[in-house]
Structure to design on (123 residues):
């Protein structure tokens, strides 16, 4: 069983930055997918960024490329999402997710989820 706890959300003006953290507990093997999803009101939960612990390969949604960076601290079992140059359209609930697989695209295929942290960007 894996537990995920997010932190770091908040309110920021457009152009600002936030760093989200996801503390993981439980057994996470060296071949896990860890990632961030987001869901705005009335929209589906979509993949923002993922990282495969087996080799470090990353994925970013087109809308966040060049602005967001996903990283992990294996010793601390913590996942991060550095978000720079935030835009109003980044406003959403952000969720940390994990799955013992190779980073599926859809949220439905992820096994473990955090409770979410709200990010609000004002223009």
């Amino acid at each position: 069983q894996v537990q995920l706890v997010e932190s770091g959300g908040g309110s920021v003006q457009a152009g600002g930055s936030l760093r989200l953290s996801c503390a993981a507990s439980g057994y996470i093997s060296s071949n896990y997918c860890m990632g961030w999803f987001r869901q705005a009101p009335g929209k589906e939960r979509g993949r923002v960024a993922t990282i495969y612990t087996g080799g470090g390969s990353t994925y970013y949604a087109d809308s966040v490329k060049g602005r967001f960076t996903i990283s992990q601290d294996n010793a601390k079992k913590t996942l991060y999402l550095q978000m720079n140059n935030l835009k109003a359209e980044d406003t959403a609930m952000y969720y940390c997710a994990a799955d013992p697989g190779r980073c599926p695209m859809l949220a439905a295929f992820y096994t473990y989820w955090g409770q979410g942290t709200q990010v609000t960007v004002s223009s």
